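Researcher: Structure for this, please.
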Amino acid sequence: MKRNDYITWDQYFMGIAIMSAARSKDPNTQVGACIVDESNRILSMGYNGMPSGCNDDEMPWDREGEALTSKYFFVCHAELNAILNYRGGGTLRGSRCYVTLFPCNECAKAIIQSGIKEVIYMEDKYSDSESTIAAKKMFEMADVKYRLYKNEHKKIEFEV
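Model: Predicted structure, token format:
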């Protein structure tokens, strides 16, 4: 008889997004993303960080300050990194994106343009921001579904 206490697909893929977020060097917000096809195969992953080739020891990580002395002009978001990291040679059309934080408007545009059809997010802490409101408006117009990840309280522990 097979075991029946295995994790769900949502738990599995959100777990991978959470693990990806742990790679982020951002001292304030760590975000991870995992893109999955219709057959539950992982297509790509990403986390928020500085662009490849940019020494993150020399880049700003501050949240406050002038545009060129804060992180916002420089950090590449997890969703965009996952889209750019895709090397499958095919398409992301019809896929799902598991992400630990609801996408901003810029990532929403990339998600829509890449053909991702569903976003499953763990947290929406900026729900009142214009960026998130714009993202949701674009998702609705482009028929990209989004839903809050339902934590079913399955605790998984391991050491790395």
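Researcher: Any notable elements?
Model: Residues 103 and 132 are 7 Å apart (CA to CA). The first strand starts at residue 32 and ends at 36.
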